[in-house]
Amino acid sequence: MEVEQGKTYLLRIINAALNDELFFGIAGHNLTVVEVDAVYTKPFTTQAILIAPGQTTNVLVKANQASGRYFMAARPFMDAPVPVDNKTATAIFQYRGVPNTVLPSLPQLPNPNDTSFALSYNKKLRSLNTPNFPANVPLKVDRKLFYTIGFGKESCPSCINGTRFVASLNNISFEMPQVGLLQAHYFNLKGVFKTDFPDRPSTPFNYTGAPLTANLGTSTGTRLSKIAFNSTVELVLQDTNLLTVESHPFHLHGYNFFVVGTGIGNFDPAKDPAKYNLVDPVERNTVGVPTGGWTAIRFRADNPGVWFMHCHLELHTGWGLKMAFVVEDGPGLDLSVLPPPKDLPPC
């Protein structure tokens, strides 16, 4: 990427990786974060950013250093006992007129397991919350949801060692149907899915305590959660130590949401909501649930239809770490699911 001395550049950064949260930085240059997931943020300056699969981040970079060649670099963040490919991907931030023979310098990225950087970086993300770009955070909540994130193993005679990994929300691993969910919802097709996904786990436990490796009775099914149109929803996503703790970037289709709180350990419904940021929380569509911790989001269900929510690590979503919301139609055709085009091929 060739740059001119004294100019400022807007970089639109997308993490298109399948299974890696990434640190990104440019040697010798600061990054000013101004937007995440297509929503403006309060600007702040940092030497590196953290970006999860499915997330986007816009940064301003001033070409104000000595003319030369500087590596842009990205490498994985992983603070759980899970093996990752720790290679560093690079490109070159090159000032105009500098010959290609000049050796670039590498940025000082955080260590691959730098939990403190990850937590402090995410705390700096705040909505702009100005008259032109308000943060319309739901203050009154109609529906409170609590979903646990877990791993497990199940019998699989055709698999190596006779078992396979599954992943679940509230101990339910999602099973993909043979008919499109929106198609089944619109045409009221029976037997495709149920709307009995539980609002909370059936059995509370010490979610982030000692690793739990026993047979946990994880079930599989196409179970959705029905949400009333225009209702306000608070969802707490709780990581667990079922086999292992790990960071999970969760993406909700069809909506932006506000990240009102996050913490390490078990969510405490009696104390943690008092610490929520309800003034200028970051608004986005993909959020990282910290390793061995929790994240609370709020949104208004004003977009009718069937909307997936899933871990954006491809391996995990393939193991069943997903579910879907059925948001009911509102009053009138303008607030209802549109009919499919006549030439839409069936799923």
Features:
six-stranded mixed beta sheet, 3 helices, 22 strands, mainly beta, 347 residues, Immunoglobulin-like
In terms of topology, how is this protein built?
Blueprint (H helix, E strand, L loop, with lengths): L1 E2 L4 E7 L6 E6 L4 E6 L2 E8 L1 E4 L4 E7 L6 E9 L11 E7 L19 H10 L18 E13 L7 E7 L2 E3 L6 H6 L32 E3 L3 E3 L4 E8 L8 E5 L4 E8 L18 E2 L1 E4 L3 E8 L4 E7 L2 H5 L3 E6 L20
Parallel strand pairs: 1-9, 10-15, 12-13, 14-22
Antiparallel strand pairs: 2-7, 3-6, 3-8, 4-5, 4-7, 8-9, 10-11, 15-20, 16-19, 16-21, 17-18, 17-20, 21-22
Contiguous helical run count: 3
Q: What number of domains? A: 2
Kindly report the average pLDDT value.
Answer: 95
Global Rg: 22 Å
The secondary-structure class comes to: mainly beta
Distance between the termini: 42 Å
Order of neighbouring strands in the sheet with most strands: 11-10-15-20-17-18
Taking pLDDT < 50 over at least 5 consecutive residues as the criterion, the unreliable ranges are none
Strand fraction equals 35-45%
Strand elements, count: 22
What is the CATH class designation of the largest domain? Mainly Beta
N-to-C order of helices and strands:
EEEEEEEEEHEEEHEEEEEEEEEHE
CATH topology of the largest domain: Immunoglobulin-like
Main β sheet profile = 6 strands, mixed
Q: Which shape, going by the Cα principal axes?
A: globular
CATH superfamily of the largest domain: Cupredoxins -  blue copper proteins
Helix content: under 10%
CATH architecture of the largest domain: Sandwich
